[in-house]
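Q: What would this chain look like folded?
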Amino acid sequence: MNRIVFEIAKRRGDEMRLSRLGLSEAALLSRLAGRRVALVGNARSLAEKAQGAEIDAADIVIRLNTAPMPDPASHGTRTDWLAMSIPVPQEAIAARAPELLLWMTPKRKRLPWRVVQAPGFALLPAIRAAALRDELGARPTTGMLAIDLLARSDLASARLHGFDFFASKSLSGGRGAADVPHDFAAERDRVAALIAADPRFSLA
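A: My prediction, written as structure tokens:
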């Protein structure tokens, strides 16, 4: 797909054409099979913990959006996959050096051409966000979309770091829960139910 076709497709919301970009969801799920995953959220409270070594010991480390990493002791050093719902600046992507970029949000108009052109790129199907939005009654966060993707895979384990569902706000901004279009209580309850039902998942 060339740049002109891409720009037309994303402005029209042509999901069928856009779905041909990068890795398929099946390929993503295949890469997760049998792997131990550390999913690192952006809660400020993670900076007060010493989970960096545990994060870096995972087979795959997934971070979210701008992926703030204030200290290796708390956050580790690796970023294998970067899951995004915003156009992360290229310098931030270069600093993290992920092998795979995942565009999570169904907001296709925000998807940059430079991200699509990355050697490793995957587009989460828009139906995944729509289903979660119906279930939660609000737009799902990038973290919730990532958790849902992991839950549909055959991974060995998933450890969630830096998820306190906005109790300590986010390292990536100063907004409060009332300033964002998410239902953190609903997401907290959904994750609690997942952990209770699926022994592969745990909250650090």
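The longest helix spans residues 184-197.
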